[in-house]
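Chain A, query sequence.
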Amino acid sequence: MKRIRLTMAQALVRFLDVQYVCLDGIESKFVNSIFGVFGHGCVVGVGQALSQGGHGIRFLQGKNEQNMALAATAFAKQKNRREIIPCVSSIGPGAMNMVTAAGCATANRIPLLLLPGDTFACRQPDPVLQQAEFFDSFGRTVTDAFRGVCHYFDRIERPEQLMTAALHAMRVLTDSADTGAVCLAMPQDVEGEAYDYPADFFRKRVWHLDRRPMAQSQLTRAMEILQKAEKPLVILGGGVRYSEAGDALAALCEAANIPFAETQAGKGTLPWTHPLNIGGIGVTGGKAANVLAPQADVVLAVGTRLTDFTTSSKWLFRQDAKFIGLNICPFDAIKMDAEAIVCDAKAGLEAMTDALEGYKSGWGGEVRAAVDEWNAIVDAHYAADDPRGLSQTRALGEINRFMADTDIAVGSAGSLPGDMQRLWRSGKRDTYHMEYGFSNMGYETNGALGVKLAAPEQEVYAFFGDGTYMMAHSELLTCVQEGVRVHFCLFDNSGWGCIENLQNNQGNDTFGTVFRFRNPKTGELDGDIMPVDFAKNAAAYGLETYTIRTVEELRAALKEGREQPLPVLYDIKVLPGSMTPGYESWWRVGVAEVSTQPRVQAAYEDLIAHVKQTREF
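Chain A, predicted structure.
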């Protein structure tokens, strides 16, 4: 058997360079780039392997480990999980910075390969710089923290262990039902240790993303429920997008006259103008979906995790409504006590469409009426003028109307995801990119880079608040470095407006959610609003920037920004509290059971009343 002597890190790079995936006969390379922030524990290991060449992988220089991993997550999401960007870090804090991103990828079912450095496997120099020692075990290191947020974790303590570790990492990264973050912790001494690897380990390897068909028994069970339905409803989740099953879902709904509602991950898979598209559903949903959903006697949930935001904390649907969970992941298929149909979304929808021939739902003109009413509400939000200043929804509408139908909108946290699921009118397929499984502040600013790397020919617009910007914006500099134009739309409302809104709606006065100076008279954070010039901050990185307070300034900046060669930041000063309200929905949060505040007491009573109306499983 032919062997090649390489360090573990060199073998890892060579292995990743020859991994491919294949779906429906279309083959593509799985790894073309690697993100890294070099430090001890990786710069002389993986860094050396990358720098010496002999591979086709491009190095991307991250500026913060969490942020580059969020960019990598967004990249894989935009690629519909067909390509990844692994992330390399040093040991200790560099490694720990990626734990949040691992949780984000796992929550969203997105493949993310993390390659953190680790302490010495030989233990001889212990304790090394940045090593945290645990008194109960010398075998435990800080990278064990990844175990709780990854679908697969391994620590490579001998160079030959790479072979099994790498193959199992790829198994999970390419498994539609069991994907998420994968961590291969790499002790810094082992990264540089050599082994005579079998040459066959470095052969081109194709991972086939075969579509799991719907079994006949599953089809029979689903039809027994669906064909008896008077008013069925489809929920379109992210799994429809990743399976590329949008046309198949449209065909089923059109053939059987079934309206469909969108989750955050599923939105944009089908046009907002489709006559059966009733829009976003749940806590951040619109009125059309949330008025029609309680009427449904059968709910076909396709490729969705059925989160509390989608189901309004299990309150939105009739107690006697039956659920069919069509999902590649058994864990998700049984939610809401559903009849579990475990198969590929596209294959399952096509089989159901054929079996439903001749069936029509009992929905009538109420679907069109609800959609027309909702569209009028959206139009009003997009056109509303406020004498006090620029509202958040008006600014959002102006940007939505300005963007081309191929431009991609990216979002994640704060009040903007609610506004966008309700109001945003998506263009072409896969142009609405929302991370709302983890609602990870900082995903938008850094994920926009990943989206742009995944779709370099399309314009990318990121939507986020001032709170998000201050948490995580390091990869704006990477956009400048890479020469890629991303449009960063910063909505400055002087605080965490979404959380203040939640706080107030549950009977609490504003406390700790607005960015104010410490008041020397009261000793509290109730002084003047803190003015921040975000445009000046971003300009220091090299971005083209605009400060915006009026509709006219926004229109002019958007037009000019489109012509800039550099990434652009629009510092949009919006009125606090000018986001959309909720529509016919409810969200269960932990309201104080005991309080001296009457409004909090009333909020708790309201909580109890709603809980009595929810489904328990």
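The chain has a mean pLDDT of 96. The longest strand covers residues 112-118.
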